[in-house]
Design a protein that fits this description.
It holds the Pfam family DUF6193. By secondary structure, this protein is α+β, with helices and mostly antiparallel strands. The protein has one domain. It is built from four helices and five strands, in the order ααβββββαα. It has a five-stranded antiparallel β-sheet with strand order 1-2-3-4-5, covered by helices on one side. The longest helix has 12 residues.
Length: 108
């Protein structure tokens, strides 16, 4: 199976990641805690390398690479281990609306 397709299949099998909004770009699989653009950038993401390996980076583009692995399962596990507390299900709205909701909820 092609590495990116394998990555999507493995990520889809992970219950907590199914609660988030997946999106792709540049052979990377990202996860957002909200459903509308502008998405959140607080979850690590997984990319594929030309040699069939995977890398985990993030949560931001400026963050250092977390690791490389030959296994889609290992890459997905690295993301799951680094999810923000209370992650999921995805908030219906954009990142700004999610931030306002979380701030209001924190004041209760």
């Amino acid at each position: 199976m092609e590495p990116f397709a394998e990555l999507v299949r493995v990520a889809r099998a992970e219950p907590i990641l199914r609660q988030l909004l997946p999106w792709t770009g540049m052979w990377e699989l990202h996860f957002s805690r909200c459903t509308e653009m502008r998405y959140t950038w607080d979850v690590p993401y997984i990319g594929t390398l030309r040699n069939g390996r995977y890398y985990v980076e993030g949560p931001h583009r400026s963050s250092p690479r977390i690791a490389e692995t030959d296994s889609a399962r290992a890459a997905v596990a690295m993301v799951v281990d680094r999810l923000p507390p209370g992650c999921g299900p995805a908030f219906i709205g954009d990142a700004e609306e999610l931030a306002a909701f979380e701030e209001a909820r924190g004041r209760r």
